[in-house]
Design brief:
Order of helices and strands: HHHEHEHEHEEHEHHH
CATH class: Alpha Beta
Structural class: alpha+beta
Number of helices: 10
Mean pLDDT: 91
Largest sheet: 4 strands, antiparallel
Strand content: 15-25%
Distance between the termini: 53 Å
Number of strands: 6
Shape: globular
CATH architecture: Roll
Helix content: 40-55%
CATH topology: C8orf32 fold
Strand order of the largest sheet: 5-4-3-6
Length: 224
Amino acid sequence: MSEAMQRYLEPTFTIDSDHVSVLAFVDKHSQKKDSPRQRAVDLYYAVRDGFRYNPYSLNLEEQAFKASFTLEAGEGWCVPKAILLAACCRAAGIPARLGFADVKNHLSTERLRQSMKTDVFLWHGYTSVYLEGQWVKATPAFNVELCDKFGLKPLEFDGLEDSIYHEFDCAGNKHMEYLQERGEYQDLPLREMLSDFEKIYGMNLTEELDNASFDEDVEKEVSK
């Protein structure tokens, strides 16, 4: 493997693919005898559905982005879940990196809309995985139970084609628009991301979401 590709197999501070809990998770959810593509697919579903999507768990401390931290927390928003999948793939010997894009989300909670003061989500995170000679995008953010509640089509991943958000939900309503791609990285560009968050969302975003329940707000949203 080339030196350029090798860097996408190495652990970093947030993509701590050498952590004992990450290694144990990979051993549990993928079979070494399987092909790299099948291992990546198995790990995708283990992360997508094994960790509840919770945008209110917006801890912006660097430590909270580590894959091992998300494993212990059992939940996360799009960026930590993308980091966890990248760490799992690297631990399984599959090159992986982090991708980011700005998206307009037409389905969120009233509390989140008020806190963010916009429906544009900066630095939406996904995982880019190198399989069978090409990079493919995998988006493990929304667990299947959340998709069922919101009437969304769960994102499937076969390791052959990009798995990115659907433009429309199951009822034909607008769901997600990709506004711009920010590129793909070996590790989390935390300073750049937090700088943009502060400019657009302000300093009090995490405080406004403290002590609130995403699950309860989802129930209110879907019952409207």
